[in-house]
Amino acid sequence: MPEFRNPNQGGGGSQDNRSFLIMMIVMISVIFGLQYWRTQHNPPIAPPDQQTAVTAPSTSPSASSTPSATTAATPAVAAAAQTSTVVENELYRITFSNRGGQVTSWILKKFKDTEGHPLDLVHNGASALYGYPLSLYTYDEGLTRQLSNALYVASSTGTLEAPATLTFKYAAGNLSVTKTFTFGADYLVHADTVVLRDGAPLRALLSWPAGLGDLETAIAYNGAQVDTSSSGKDDHLSFKKVSGGNTLPGPFDFAGVSDQYFAAIFIPDQPSDASLVTLQNKIDVTKVKRSAVSNTVIPGKSAVLLPVLGAAVGSLSGHNQMSVFVGPKAISVLKSIHTADGNTLEPLLDFGFFGPIGKYLFLGLRAVHSAIAPHDNGVHNYSWGWAIVIFTILINLVLLPLRVQGMKSAVKMQRIQPQIEAIKAKYKNPKATDPKAGEMNAEVMALQKANGVSMLGGCIPSLIQLPLLFAFFTMMTKVVELRQAHFFWLPDLSSADPWHILPILMVITSFVAQYYTPSPGVDPQQQKMMAFMMPAFSGYMTWNYASGLALYWNIGNLVMIIQQQVMNRTSLGREMKEIAAKRASRKTAVRSSSSKTIQGRR
Asked: ∠ at Cα 138 (141, 219), nearest 5°?
């Protein structure tokens, strides 16, 4: 390792070494704690209860909300040909087919896919295999296929402008089906469905069975999950924790599927009467395209299996009445949508282990963005990038007093270091198991207390910045507002820098920040190792991660370098360098003396 000399560095000291060790232990504990939290946060689901899955309740829905029942054969109701109906407002364009009375396309007008086309949240390839959105799921596979393939009679064809209502009806033999959808100005669609057999309601759940349209991108970030909320307590189950065909009893404030940015969520009108069936499948994306039904094998490509999660929600009474939210997991949108119990869909946006910190970090970032671009969504210009720059500067200004306090604590520690070394010399540096070690430590702590020295004082700023960094790390790939947000050469702040410019700058700025930050109590060899290891670690962390995180980290490093340069020129900084120089000279003298003694023995 090449030699270099930092003008702000000096000799070693066990006290700051302990602070450094504590900081590293905390950092490692956070990492392992995060892994443990994830395993606890997604507990395995119990095996399906077959007894509750096959019986239909005997109670009949209210006559005012369901078709009239007869025990005689129901007159046949079916369309002669397949037709489609398009419903749209300013937010979406939904295409229904009368085959199954289900959705074949659900386009969100304000969002684009990775190829720049309007984002369709229906994955046609997966849906062709496992079912289309708003199809009916029963515990009889034959009946489910019949309900999905039948030609319903639609109340309207062509194009409808919301607010509007669309009804599908089908009847054959002793079976009668009515599906009614009501559309408004927001992302919600209200659904009212009922299946009657011999006039009695049959349990048929409304489903979203085959994931979302941005499946390939979402799985790259391990974002697919089943989301539920029961009595105000939310849960998020990853693919590995979902049992396909498992029935979960209610109550459910909401239940459905989501990925990192978008969601398809059912919101029952009667939460206490709702149940959920989780659906789990896989598709080979080399055979099944997102926007094509063809199963042609792509030459030269081996199988690439991606998980597909789905959900079916319905009432135990057999009469389903619920709202369906299909849209972005934006805080402002989720907070505007309420469940029957008065809660909102905000818990869908899960920031992970550091959730509360991540949430308020984003709220602060959004406030800055609103201030600099109040009438802009931030996707097609640089506003979100500039918001990250400004927000990072503000965070570092807020942390500046703590940084100064940490520097003061380090100076105090260096002032009493000779006295600490004298105490250690008096006890002849006993081992940890020696009873005298406790007496020595008590005397050292009494000295520190008398001089107002805190053992953690020097590393408090770092301990505070670590949760911020981890929370920012998680937040960057969770908020849809940063999806496809451009910033100079960066096409998407939620994706990695395609040219790896920011990660390379990360290594440089981290090294310079280490170089100019005084650490007179840290052993020189340890200091030299960290000066290279930490920059390499930061570069590795941001190489294939969200470029917005690398932007935040780089700006933070630049601000830290400027602040440190200013502080190094204050009386406090000069005193620290003088103490460091004296200790370094004493350390050099001790090493020289030790070297001569060894040579004399030889």
From this structure: 85
